[in-house]
Amino acid sequence: MNSPESLQNRLTELEAENARLKDALAHAQRLANVGQLASSITHEFNNILTTVINYAKMGLRHKDANTRDKAFDRILSAGQRASKITTGMLAYARPKGDRRDEIDLGQVLADVLVLVEKDLQMHRIRLQADVLANPICEVNVSQLHQVLMNLIVNARQAMKDGGMLTVGVRLSEDKGMGELFVRDTGSGIPAEHMRKIFEPFFTTKTADELGQGGTGLGLSFCKEVIEAHKGRMRVESTVGQGTTFTLKLPLAKPAASRKSA
Predict the structure, then answer these.
(1) φ, ψ (nearest 5 deg) of residue 172
(2) What are the sequence ranges of the domains in the chain?
(3) Where would I find the H helices in the chain?
(4) Which residues contact 259 (CB under 8 A, 6 or more apart)?
(5) DSSP per-residue codes, 98-163
(6) CA separation for the pair 232, 249 (Å, rounded)
């Protein structure tokens, strides 16, 4: 018969293994989302390279200062766009453990939109970004990137024939909270599924031809991340009209409050 001490040790080992597997699963989900965006990002890089090459040729052909200045400006702008994309991809794909930083939620949203804008265009989805405030929250940026990416990819998949995606940041009506929201005009979620959508492995989707999606782990991961930040996640949906996910996160405490705490 196992002693209480050996059972406790075994429980500790299982908890550590569970944590390791959850980290590995979260990393796999990050890479799966990157894979879904690979085609659109490759297309955008091709456009950037075309811009750089064409304006470099123009600058070489024309000797006047105004034309060369215009060529250099366009090349610089294209290079900066490429840098934003690669920086965003690296930040998104690279896990950062449990580290949390104070950051403007609007900046978190902007970093994700850099990665998804072209993908949305390719799927005939119009994008509207409403940054109505600049709440500062203490978050694990990598995890919050992944939550937003999951919600945006889900929204795009719900709008198979195109539509409107509205994302935004605002102060919550709940005092001391900031909000991020993702709203689509897609198929909506049937009432009988609403109470199950955050359950692990529950899904109404099947994996695509690349084997991506349909695991039923995306929304459960999102909810777990937000609740680990002492926040809340809310969903509203109407079949045939669309779905809105709202993420509520506590505002960071002012420096003076932290020192006196």
Answers:
(1) -80, 155
(2) 100-258
(3) 4-61, 65-93, 105-122, 141-158, 191-194, 218-228, 255-260
(4) none
(5) T--EEEEHHHHHHHHHHHHHHHHHHTTEEEEEEE----EEEE-HHHHHHHHHHHHHHHHHH-TT-E
(6) 7
Q: Is the dihedral of CA 59, 49, 27, 145 positive or negative?
A: positive
Reported CATH class of domain 100-258: alpha beta
- The single-letter code of the amino acid at 218 is G
Nearest to 95 by CA among 25, 152, 153, 143: 143
Phi and psi for 135 in degrees, rounded to 5?
A: -65, 135
Distance CA 12, CA 8 (A): 6
- 261 residues of the chain, pLDDT tens digit each: 567 777 777 778 777 776 666 666 666 666 666 666 677 778 778 878 888 888 898 888 888 899 889 899 989 988 888 887 777 767 666 666 678 899 999 999 998 998 888 889 989 999 999 999 999 999 998 889 989 998 998 899 899 999 999 999 999 998 999 999 999 999 998 888 888 887 765 566 554 444 445 444 578 888 989 999 999 999 999 999 999 999 999 999 875 454 444
Contact 101, 38 (CB under 8 A): no
